[in-house]
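Vacuolar protein sorting-associated protein 28, pasting as requested.
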Amino acid sequence: MEQLAYAPATSRSVSESLIRQAKQSLDHEIPLFESNRQRDHIESLAELYSIIVAINVLEKSFIKDNFHDNEDYYTNTVMRLINQYNLILKDDEIKKEFDDLDKFVQRLQLDCPLAVKRIQIGLPATATQSHGSLAAVNLAPSASGSEIALKGKAIAEATGSFITLMDAIKLNYNNKEQLHPLLTDIVTSTNKVFGDYDGRAKLVQWLIKLNNLKLNESLTDDELKEFLWDIDVAYKGFFSQLE
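Structure tokens follow.
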């Protein structure tokens, strides 16, 4: 029987073979996710991470008075980021993985205390602080027609916001998704008129309380009665300031 001659492979042929195999493997896409749902899930958590970091940067800049001439940019950007944050967490699976804001930042070692506080409040600093840009405008003859019209519109918006929220509570609206936007409208609209008024501080406290409610939590009947009382007190305080 004829024996085949043994021809040992050279190091060059081995290297070329390995290179060809490597090139072939690089041509194939390596999946990072097992499904599109898993990819969306991870991307949503990454988005939450970036939102927290972005808000913290904005808060630091606001404290340094970097938005003195452009507070609207700060206000609109923070409000948009907070809305995006809340929208992402409406997904039950993402909410379960996210768990809790404090736990999330601890787990990922995020040093963003200013962002955590701002998200818990649920409004930009410009909305919770007393500015009252129209407070100095009265209905005296010295006020221009445009100033009177501007203040009149702001007062009408604030009045409508108060009435809408009080009606909502009477209709048994009781959770964060229903009540927080309505209370936000009151705080932002009244801020355009007065720097402060009786009952305003309570409204800000309720904003924080509502924003920290979990999606499956609601205010109790006793809490709703107290909330309605505080809204009524603030409503009367706002209008007494107009006199």
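Note for the archive: The chain has two domains: 36-127, 131-242.
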